[in-house]
Structures are given as structure tokens and as C-alpha cells.
Amino acid sequence: MNDFLTLMKQELMITFIIFLLLFIKIGKGMKNEGLLSLIQVLLLINFIAGFFLNKEGDLFGNMFHTNSLIAFQKNILNLGVYLISLLCADWLKKTPHLSEFFILMLSASLGMFFMISSGNLLIFYLSLELATIPLAAMANFDLDKKRSSEGAMKMILSSAFSSGILLFGISLIYGATGTISFAELPQQLDGSPLQILAFVFLVAAFAFKLSIVPFHLWTADVYEGSPIAATAFLSVISKGAIAFIFISALYNVFQPMYEVWYSMLVILAIATMVIGNLFALRQQNIKRFLAFSSIAQVGFILVGISNGDKAGITSVVYFILIYVFSNLAAFGVASVIAEKTGKENVDDYKGLYKTNPFISWILTLALFSLAGIPPTAGFFGKLFLLTAGASKGSYVFITIATLNMIISLYYYLRVVRAMFMDKNEQPIEKINTNRVTKFALILCAAGIVLVGLLSWIYEYIESLT
Amino acid sequence: MNLLLLILIPLLTAVAALLSRNKQQIRWISLAGSVIQLVAAFVLFVAYRNEIAAGNNSQMLFEQSYSLFPAWHINFHLGVDGISIAMILLTAFVVIAGVLVSWNIEKMTKEFYFLLILLSLGAYGFFISLDLFVLFFFLEIAVIPKYLLIGIWGSGKKEYSANKLALMLMGGSALVLVGILGLYFSSGHSFDLLSLSQLNIPIQTQRIIFPLLFVGFGVFTALFPFHTWVPDGHSSAPTAGSMFLAGISMKLGGYGCLRVATYILPEGAKEYSTIVIVLASIAILYGAFATMMQKDLKYINAYSSVSHCGFVLLGIGMLTKTAMTGAVMQMVSHGLMTALFFAVIGMIYDRTHTRQVNEMGGLMKVMPFITTSFFIVGLCSLGLPGLSGFVAEMTIFMGSWEHTDAFHRIATIAACMSIVVTAVYILRAIGNVAMGPIKENFLQLGDAKWNEKLAAVILIAGILAIGIAPSWLNDLIRPGAEIIMNKITGK
């Protein structure tokens, strides 16, 4: 019983918050303002509590597994959820179904937590579904917008499709090896054609969720249609969680098939970076723009994963921590602007610096971090991913990856240029950001600068792996 | 002397500039910061000479090392030799002059000075770091301020130029990155410059990595055919931006070619020496002839920079001690000279509002100080004895002449001939700008103000100090060049 409480404390905390919100909703209800503040405080407590009493252990007959690295990964996700609750405060206050939104978001997080901790393919599949279905509902949260429902529909259909593929892969794996437990699988893997086929199906399912090319087609439409809070959750938290479980599945379970998945990852990474970047070049809508840029970022994560060793997992976790700060800062600024003016196009940002220097600097910092420009943390994150990926000595692969950094720089600079250099007759007028959002933006900016320069953070992550 | 100071002073200056309240404060803070930095550079120079005089013959002085990312064997390893000190002195001079000539910037003053100081921070860090990862970090820090400086405060087709510059320089640094990673994995996981230089890296690896590093750094220093960002970038940049770009940023490339590519990969340097010399000669001649066709003063200096930076690469490619010393001298000399040139162009443009040579004339009558500076820098550019340009180019030619075969002789002679071309365009530009009848609308124009005079005097002092008494610079650089050459000749 004691083990149950400590090992599952992060999941239990989230469940507790979900039920609390449910009771508030059923009972008298609260005004949005007060409810949001309450949620923010609860999420902060949840985030801080995640750092204490982390132990390693298994539950439910190895179905659930946790250790300090997994706890840290969950903390990163908790941090992301907390930041979203602050950054999108303006939109959240206005939405008529605030508590439902957070119930859905936290259920999805709960699913992701179980997914990261899963100890066999069955619980993995169940938690993946728990993480996906609330996401579709969140994508549909702009109830009066047609695009929002369209995005949700696309999301649910493509998720169902990928779940089908995943289940097929799982059943093939079971057929080929006779087990679905992560602990027992490695001994049964011998690289037979059937196992490789099953593995390909599994990777395809992951690729759907991570929007790896060629399974990325749903991403841009869903991102564009969803409210920004949901988009931010989709692109940061959900991507991060899937990347965590993907890497631990590859490293811990499918390690015997390293040769197979190394070459797969190289091809997928190159395709993802190139296609993501090329499509991002021409996007006008900031959400679509960030969608394609996040596809390209996933390509870089794959470069790091291809390392296959401790350096790979450390640099990926480190990069995702940075990615949470940078991408959420970008979404935060987009959300502030969209909420106040309804404008979501890059061209609308022209001349933004004249009227809103603060948010322009934050967005610039975030984009530089995404592009990997020093002194932002993104530089270190990307460089370590590349170094990890280069350890197999494939110059061509790394050259393509670095060239992609140049392409991505071009479109990130396009937004910077719009804000700082382009002239505009009617720039977006001065926006009064509320204190909570401002605080969150400063927090993100501090994260973007400090996570890179304080090198002990990397060491800390390394000590966990 | 603690080398961390060289990074901390600009950092604190930048922060102070951000926190300051009004424009006047920002200007004085930036000026104070850059003066303190110059003093620090001088203290370093004196301390270095004292150490050498005391018989300290270690390769790098004032070394410090802090563990940064132990997992990747990255150390914050700092240290200087004579070559780095020469570059640091150059940077300090150019920064002060740049801050002074930008005194009248009214548009977004705070951001302007912040970016200038940030750029100089990148340069200082680059010149003192002995760890390739840290070096790369500082190299990239120096790129993005340039993009913003040109894009926001520039003129003409500034967005195009800023984009071109940022993407080409980032492309260059991407090649550098691949090269550095290649070194890291072929050397058994080390980013440390000194320990990498002790290794005998197999020739096959050197063949792959040397071109990556050399071309990557070469983009920064206008290696033909990757020089195309230079004319656009310089002509669109604000005055101080051009000064920093030509005076500091292009030197990052030359220093990298020498310190990283040539020093760590001597076999590669030998194998590719012919190609480097050919490309450098093309840049020298092409730059010179292209300058002849230009009418815009900034384009004139931009193309002549391509030509002059060609000398740097020629000196490195020749692989003799004298030529290498000359290459570093040329970097310092060209840095000072071209910064002054751009400063003068900026002063003239502020008054006449044109940069077209044929629209000017007789400016000697109304702005004697500016045109005199223009004379001095022009004469320095065409290599008049007594000024820095002569010393540097002469050293390179002497070093090149040590090779007795026909190829090196031809390359040297071709490079020498560019001086004639330089004389043609410089004298023609001076004649058109300063001499002849003055236009009526120019009659009311005034001469340089205190800040502009001070900037010009500081840079001219540097040019004269090298031109009249070159031995101190030579003594400073030669030991460093000797170590690199010893590595190449295998002693």
C-alpha cells in the first residue's frame, strides 16, 4: 500500500485534481477567474510535489514501472501543463467550460503518465488511448468554429487508424515472441522477418503520434483548427510524452534490433526534417507555421534517438525540456495576440516590435531557441542531439541535419524580420498582457536562457539515466 | 591576468545598457565599457610581454579551464597566445571607434548598442577560447546581432542583405560544426584545441575535415566563391555595423582558418594548400578588379575587403612562418583600415547623403579632417610604406617568395599586381571625393564632430603604430605562427 502511494504519486495527484474539478463542477460551480487561479495553484503544487520521494519500483505485476528518470520526465510534462494554464489564461477565462477543458487535459496527461510508466504493450495501448481521446475533444473546444471540429475529426480518425496499426503490430509481436511484457521481450527478439514486420507497425503507430513524415498529414490542420491552448498541449506535452516512451521502448525493449531501427530512424529523420522545413517555409498562419516547425524539431529528436546509448536518451530528455520552454513561449505569445486581436498570420506581426517590445523579444528568444542560436538553450539542445547522432560517424546524415538547421533559420528569421524590420501601416496595437501570462512568459524566457548556460541541468539528467 | 574579464566586461556593459534609462546614458555606458575593455586588452598585452620577457615559453598563457559539460568532455578552456592578443587589441580598437561613430543613432538606441556589445562579446570569446565547442558557441553568438543590425538600422535592400548574410554565415558555421564533430569522434572524444593538436589524426580523416573547417571559416572571411554576402552586407549595414562586420567579424574566419583548420590538421593544410592559394589569388585579383567598377563608396570598400582578405588566406595557404605572420598582421591591419574606411564613408554620407563617388567633389574644402582621414586610409589600403597595409602585405609577399617553385612565384606575382589596381581605384576615389570643384549644395557642410574625430584618431593611431614600428606586432605574432609552422613541418 505504501509503495502504491509513493510510486504512483504523480498519477494520484493528477487523478485527485481531476476529481476535485469534477466535484466543483457538479456542486455549486465557481466563477472562471477564481477557478482558474485555483487550478493554477493546484498545478504548481503538483509540479513541485513531483520532485520529492521518487523511488524506483514496479506495481501490478510489472505493468507499471517507475524510476527517477521517468519521474523527471513526468515533471517536465507537469511543468508544461502548468505553463499552459498560465500562458493561455486570457482564453481560458473566457471559455464557458473551463473545468471540462482541464479535466480533459489532465486526463490526457494521466494517460501519458501511465504510458511512460507502462511495463507491457497492453497497458501501453490502453494508456495511449486514454491520452488520445481527450485530445480530440480538446481540439474541438472552439465550439463555434468549423475548423475546430474539422481538426478534431481529422485527429480522431487518424488516431483510430494509427491505433489499429498499433494493435496489429502488438498482436504480431505476441504471435512472434509469445509475450507482451517489456521485460521479457528483449530475450525473445532475434530479428526474424515477422518480428521486423511487427516492429515496423509499432514504429508506424509512434510515427503517427509524433507526426513523423510520412505520417504527418493530420498535424497542420489539427493545429490550425484547435484553440491555442490545445495546440500547445498537442505539440509540446503530447509530443514530449510520446518521444519519451518511444525512446525507452527502442532502448530498453528493442535494443537487440538496433541495426534495424538505426537505419529506419536515419531515413525517417531526414525525411521529417526536410519535409517539415520545406513546408514551414511557406506558412502564413502562425499555428500552421509552428506545426511544421515542430515536425522539423521531431526530426532532430530522431537524430538524437539514433544514438542508441546513454548520450541519446540524455540529450533527448534535455532537448524536450528546452523544447517545452521555447515552444510554449512561442505559443504563449501567439495566444496573447490571437486572444486580443484575433490575428494569427505572420504578416499581421509586422511592426509588432514598435508597439509591443516585450512580447516581441520573448517570441524572438523562443524562435532563436527553436532555431538553435546561442546563447539560448536551444543551441545546446540541438548541438547535443547532433553530437549524439554523429556518434555512428555518418557524415552525410549529420551534414543533412546541419543544413536543415540553416533552412529552419530562414523561416524563423522571417517572423523576426516581420516583427522588427517590416513596416506596417496598422501594426497590432499595444496589448496589455495580464500579470499571470507575463510571469509565465518571463519564466519561459528564463528557462530558454538558463537551461543551456547552467550545465548542471544536463549533468542532473545524465545522472538519472 | 584573468581572461574571464574579457568576457565579463562586455557582458556587464550589455546588461547595463539594457537597464539604462535614456539615450545619453546608454551611449556613455557603452563607451565606458569599451574603454575599460581596451584598457584590459592593453593590460593583457603588457602582461603577456612581461611573461615572455621572464622566459615563460609555454604555448598558451593565462590558461583557465572549467568543466562545462563533463558528459561531452566540454571544458570552458581559455588561453591566449600572441595571435589572439593581436586580434583582441584589434577588436578593442574597432569597438571603441564603432561606439563613437554611432553616437547619433536615434532609432532604438538601446537595442543598437546592446547588439553591438553582444557582437563584440562573441568576438572576444571566440579569440580566447581553446575549446572547439566554446569557440563555436561564440562564433554563432557573433552572427545574429549582425542580422538585426543590418535589418533594422541598415539602408537600401537591407532585408535581403541581412538574410543573405545570416544564412551564408550560418551555412559556414554549419560546415564548421560538422568538421568539429568529425574531429570529436575521430580523436576519441575531445573538443580541446591543444590536445587535438597533439594528436596525429590519420591523413584520410584530415582530407575530409580540413575542407569542411577551412571553407566553413572561409565563408566568414570572404573566401572565393563564398564572398557574395560581403558587398551586400557591407553596403546595407549601418556605419558601425559595417565596421564591426569588416573589422571584427571577417577576422573570426581568418583566425579560425589558421588556429583551427591549419593548426589541428597540418597534413590537410599541406594537401589543399594549392587550392587555397588559387582561390585566394582569385579573390585578390577579382576583388581588386571588381572594385574598379564600383561607384558606391561602400561597395568600393566592400570589394576591396574581399581583395584584402584574400591576402590573409594567401598568407595562410603559403604555409611559411613569415607568410603566416603576415596573414595575422594583415588581419589586424585590414581590420583597423577598413573600420576607419567605413567610419569615414559614414561621416561623408551623413553630410552629403550620397555615397556615389561621381556626385561628390571638392569635399577637402569643407571637411578637411574627414578627407585627410580618407587620404590616410586610402594610402594605407594601397600599401604606402609607413602605414600598416604595407607592412602586412610586404611580410606576406616575403613569406610567399620563400617558395622557389613556379606556381608559388606566379601566385605571388599575381597578388602583387593587385596593388597596382588598388592604387588605381583608391586614387580615383580620393580624387573624385576630395579634389576638384565643390558642388554648391555641399558648401555649408561641416567637418567631423568630437566623437567622429576621436574615432578616426584612435584607428589612425593603430594604423601608424603598426606602420612605423611594426616590430612589436611581429614579435607578438611570430611565436604563435612558429608553433603552427612547426606542427606543419613536423618538428
DSSP helix count of chain A? 21
Most extensive interface, residues per chain? A-B, 34 and 33 residues
Biggest sheet record of chain B: 2 strands, antiparallel
Structural classification of chain A: mainly alpha
Give the biggest beta sheet of chain A.
Answer: 2 strands, antiparallel
What distance separates the N and C termini of chain A? Answer: 27 Å
What is the first-to-last residue Cα distance of chain B?
31 Å
The share of residues in extended strands of chain A comes to under 5%
Secondary-structure element series of chain B: HHEEHHHHHHHHHHHHHHHHH
User: What would the average pLDDT of chain A be, to the nearest integer?
Assistant: 88
Helix count of chain B? 19
What integer value in Å does the Rg of chain A equal? 21 Å
What quaternary form is this? heterodimer
Radius of gyration of chain B: 21 Å
Shape assignment of chain A: globular
Give the overall pLDDT of chain B as a whole number. Answer: 88
Q: What fraction of the residues of chain B are assigned to beta strands by DSSP?
A: under 5%
The helix fraction of chain A, in percent, is over 70%
Strand order of the largest sheet of chain A: 1-2
What does this structure look like?
The complex is a heterodimer of chains A (465) and B (491). Chain A has helices at 2-7, 9-26, 32-49, 68-87, 89-94, 98-117, 121-139, 146-177, 185-188, 193-210, 217-225, 228-253, 258-280, 286-305, 310-341, 352-355, 357-371, 377-390, 395-420, 435-453, 456-464, and strands at 57-59, 64-66. Chain A has a two-stranded antiparallel sheet with strand order 1-2. With 465 residues, chain A is an all-alpha fold. In chain A, helix 2 runs antiparallel to helix 3 and helix 8 runs antiparallel to helix 11. The two termini of chain A are 27 Å apart. In chain A, a hairpin with a 4-residue loop joins strand 1 (57-59) and strand 2. Chain B has 491 residues and is mainly alpha-helical. In chain B, strands 1-2 form a two-stranded antiparallel ribbon. Chains A and B meet through helix 18, helix 19 and helix 21 of A and helix 5, helix 6 and helix 7 of B.
